[in-house]
Give the backbone structure.
Amino acid sequence: MLLPLPVLTLAFLLAAILMAAELLGSRTAACPECPHCRGLALAEERRQQELQDEYARRVGLEPRDESRRPS
C-alpha cells in the first residue's frame, strides 16, 4: 500500500531536518576541554596559518608576521 503524498512529504522534510541537525552538531567538538581536542584544534590552526603564509608567498604578498605588529 502506498502512503499518501503529504505523509511522504512530511517524512522527507523530517529526515532532512534531522540530517541537517546532525551535520551541524558534528562540526563542533564534543569535548572542547580535553587535551586531545585542544591539540587537534591547535594543529588545524597552525595548518591554516601555514597555508595562508604559503599562499601569500606564492602571490607575492608579505606573509603575516605577528612579531612585527605596529605598537
Notes: The chain has a mean pLDDT of 82. The helical segments are 5-27, 35-58.
